[in-house]
Amino acid sequence: MADEPEKKVATSKEKMLRGSAWMTAGSMFSRILGALYVIPWLMMLGRFSGQANALFAIGYNIYSIFLIVSTAGIPGAVAKQVAHYNAMNEYTTGRKLFRSGLFLMLIMGLISAAALYLLAPIISTGDKHAIPVIRSLAWPLLIIPVMSLFRGFFQGYQNMAPSAVSQFVEQVARVVYLLAATYWIMKVMHGSYVTAVAHSTFAAFVGALASLLVLAWYYLRKRKYWDQLAENSAAELNVSTRDMLLEMVYQAIPFIILDAGITIFQLVDQYTFFSMIDDFVIGTRATFNALYALFAFNANKLIMITVSLASSMAITSIPLLSEAYTKHDFRDVRDQVDSTIELFFFIMIPSAVGMAAVAKPLYTIFYGYDFTGTLVLEFSSYMSIVLGLFTVVSAMLQGLYQNRLAIAYFIVGLLVKIGVQYPMIYLFKVFGPLVATAIGFIVASYLMLHTMNNMFHLKVAELVKFFSETLLFALIMYAICVALQQGLYLFLNPANRLHSMLVLVLVASVGAIVYGYLILKSRVGDQLLGSRMAGLRRRLGIK
């Protein structure tokens, strides 16, 4: 049974691979579903799609801020601290931490929900239509903090399946309600698009409730096993509830700052791009709005699908590194850091390069054919590797209790971004903010990796070799995909959404086959995935 303790103790690498597989699958399905629903949703809204999309964005931008406040980085901190206490055989303390956090999350959820609901008329920027949309997003704030805490608790036990499954169920429930409500309001009742948007945003509550029910079911299944662990724990620590909550908040602060790192860089673009681009490009505010939307909204929504892969690895690595660090098993720490970086290269590089290869049909399917938009998406796809790397290495540094260094390096990267923003916009125009973001995150990531190398003496030569081989195979895949795509467009219309969908499916399938064959044939992935690769080669008849 899934909830029985394993007969064989899994190694850190096996736990990391299994956890990453669960989190990657859950995150990928959720992100893809979260992107695909936009197509039928906008179609149902018809001529109101522009206004509806703007209302949806206004509501969610404000909601995101309240969501960060309401969860306050606690779930990540709980995962880290539960793993820390479990490594000390203090399972009772970990359970106590969870119960204390549950109370804190209930209070934070209530305060945030009430504040968002009451402040809606003030923060709606004078748009009366935005008020019901914003208020509909107060309801999920009642549930999501508690739901996130459950996920953090499971992750502290390196049990990623509940988080992944609940994430997928949350997205399915949200999208089903969103599309069904929009169809009923717009097509059956011929109602207002404002009402449709309000129900579309309320769908976050439906999704969160479904997710919480899944997590509660998993919790009840595992409770007896956890009770056994608690009965046999050392029980030598006597930490007061007050001290536990203070420690939780202290550990949560870096998670808040670093989890919002990409968003903070995007805010720099939001408040500098328009004034800076005006110095170099002749155009109206509407022209600049359209340029800004290309990289800040359109491309960003798609590349976050691949960046979510890195987030999955980051979530998995934190409790594992915390456990090994607590045990002072620094060799295991080094091996985990090496394996996490290799796994990042193995998954992220072909995903990002693959998205760049199919940028034209992908952009056309979602937003319609646009030459500049396609180029921005392709460049953003490459940049997603840098965003993902920062996400992973900053999480690893937090798992190793180097919170201050992680924040300091992030601030250095942010200052670099601000410093090069103007010259990059001068040189590269609409691509300038993306180049500046890449430079800033590269600096921050390098400083973090350099610190970890100094602390644990990473196998740099092996990492560089693995990176080079993975990149080479990704570039071969890219060349084949682009050639195939160009050949298909000799017969198909690149501006047609249906034709673009056909091109995307064919090219992406060929790309996956090419990369998979090269990895299996070269045995590059064997050091990471071991016998799994040999078994797959045997079944496919690859020597």
Automatic annotation (TrEMBL):
It is found in: Cell membrane. It comes from the Bacteria. Its main location: membrane. InterPro entries: PG_synth_SpoVB, Poly_Biosynth_Transport, Polysacc_synth. The chain crosses the membrane at residues 21-43, 55-79, 100-124, 136-154, 175-196, 202-220, 248-268, 302-322, 343-367, 379-398, 405-424, 430-449, 470-492, 498-520. Signal peptide: none annotated. One of its GO terms (cellular component) is plasma membrane. It is a multi-pass membrane protein. Keywords: Cell membrane, Membrane, Transmembrane, Transmembrane helix. This is Drug Na(+) antiporter (Drug efflux pump). It comes from Loigolactobacillus rennini DSM 20253.
